[in-house]
Amino acid sequence: MKTILNPQKKDWNKILERPTKKVGDIEATVNEIFTDIQANGDAGVAKYTEKFDGIALDSNLVSVAEIEEAISLVPKELKEAIQQAKENITKFHAAQKTEKVSVETTKGVQCWQEKRPIQKVGLYVPGGTAPLLSTVLMLSIPAKIAGCKEIVLCSPPNKEGKLPPAILYAANLCGVTKIIKVGGIQAIAAYTFGTETIPQVYKIFGPGNQFVTVAKQLATKYGVAIDMPAGPSELLIVADDSANASFVAADLLSQAEHGIDSQVVLVSTSKKLIDAVSIEIEKQLLELPRIEITQKAIHNSTSIFVENDAIALELINEYGPEHFIVCTKNNAFYIENIENAGSVFIGNYTPESAGDYASGTNHTLPTNGFTKAYSGVNLDSFMKSITFQEISKEGIQNIGKSIEIMAAAEGLQAHKNAVTLRLKELL
Ligand SMILES: NC(=O)c1ccc[n+]([C@@H]2O[C@H](COP(=O)([O-])OP(=O)(O)OC[C@H]3O[C@@H](n4cnc5c(N)ncnc54)[C@H](O)[C@@H]3O)[C@@H](O)[C@H]2O)c1
Ligand SMILES: N[C@H](CO)Cc1c[nH]c[nH+]1
Ligand SMILES: [Zn+2]
């Protein structure tokens, strides 16, 4: 990790540039695959599964027998861990249900809003560098609580043409209605257009690498909604002398481990802490099995020394990290004033991994600065609001004149007439 001392504000964006590929290069590939799958359906999907995942499949649909086999293969200990995570994720997302909003805006004019589940949703579970069974829980649990009817899940097959048992076990446990062995751009294209085996969906959810993220963004041009751009993992930690350097290093390494395009950043008002973390990273790295990936991501990453908490906060809000760990003497200051972050982790005993797996919050979060405008996945992501209104005779008399005047001001006579006729009838 390189260390930068007191950078000038004008240099922040350059220093914190995300290590992602140029989107333009990926867009051409994504466009080509979308066109092919729109025209050729499952045959197109199979072609790209063979090209990118190196496996030729007769069918990409997961069978009941495969699910039964998976259930028998998952160790009891992992089943119990999944159960605890499921309970916490369920509690946190079920608590997000809201009451119907209903207001009489003017006497006789009743307006209300009700939520409805999105009927057909497509979940994407990454599997390129690691099979993210936890993502199955993060997406299917809120989908089920929201009441979505068709919950489809796509994830890339391994070299044996299978999905890992834990992914199938979790998907079955959480009420996924169809599981398909397909990953990457081809999965997103299939959700967008529908194929013989993969249903077209109304909204696509889930994280993925840059290919998946750019493909999701293209899906919106064809009228399919997406949760948000949730690309390569990011973590920013603000820590001072009150933090445990070994814990800080472990947290930075945990997100660097995701892939070479992950980005981790340490911001500190203590040079002593920056040095201690750097030594700890080198020590802990040697013990990690994914050392090559993790080392590359760490190489892309930066420690930044700043004079005080106010500067640190300004820099953090400008960057807008996906994950934000706060471990300082002034935690309350950061918690009150953070504007742009996906999920915040507070204090020495709140590792980011807790949110990845089992505390209850959702780990599908905006990256690449999209925290400035997007929320992470939550119960509302799987629902939409419909507004209703009912106006009585008294109500139309109370607001009719204003509608007539405004419609006339816009030059829309037919709009005005729709009110005028009713008001006349009531005279
Ligand atoms: N933001 C979040 O909420 C969040 C959550 C979890 C994971 N993540 C991120 O998700 C990502 C998962 O990435 P992954 O690669 O492990 O799995 P993935 O499933 O997203 O991507 C794997 C697929 O990419 C496709 N692919 C690979 N190389 C390609 C190429 N050259 N051209 C076209 N397609 C290609 C293949 O089809 C493969 O199946 C990581 O970057 C991780 O940090 C983000
Ligand atoms: N940190 C990832 C979100 O960026 C989620 C995850 C899943 N498994 C481990 N981590
Ligand atoms: Zn993670």
UniProtKB/TrEMBL annotation:
Gene giving rise to this polypeptide: hisD
Co-factor requirement: Zn(2+)
Pfam families for the chain: Histidinol_dh
GO BP: L-histidine biosynthetic process
Family: Belongs to the histidinol dehydrogenase family.
UniProt-listed Enzyme Commission number(s): 1.1.1.23
Cofactor details (free text): Binds 1 zinc ion per subunit.
Catalytic residues, chain numbering: E322 (proton acceptor), H323 (proton acceptor)
GO CC term, one of those recorded: cytosol
Reactions performed catalytically: L-histidinol + 2 NAD(+) + H2O = L-histidine + 2 NADH + 3 H(+)
Alphabetical list of InterPro entries matching this protein: Ald_DH/histidinol_DH (IPR016161), Histidinol_DH_CS (IPR001692), Histidinol_DH_monofunct (IPR022695), Hstdl_DH (IPR012131)
Protein name: Histidinol dehydrogenase
Protein purpose: Catalyzes the sequential NAD-dependent oxidations of L-histidinol to L-histidinaldehyde and then to L-histidine.
Pathway recorded for this protein: Amino-acid biosynthesis; L-histidine biosynthesis; L-histidine from 5-phospho-alpha-D-ribose 1-diphosphate: step 9/9
Top-level class of the enzyme under EC nomenclature: oxidoreductase
Residues annotated as binding NAD(+): Y124, Q186, N209
Source species: Polaribacter irgensii 23-P
Residues reported to bind Zn(2+): Q255, H258, D356, H415
Keyword terms, alphabetized: Amino-acid biosynthesis, Histidine biosynthesis, Metal-binding, NAD, Oxidoreductase, Zinc
Binding annotation for substrate: S233, Q255, H258, H323, D356, E410, H415
UniProt key word Chaperone: no
Lineage: superkingdom: Bacteria
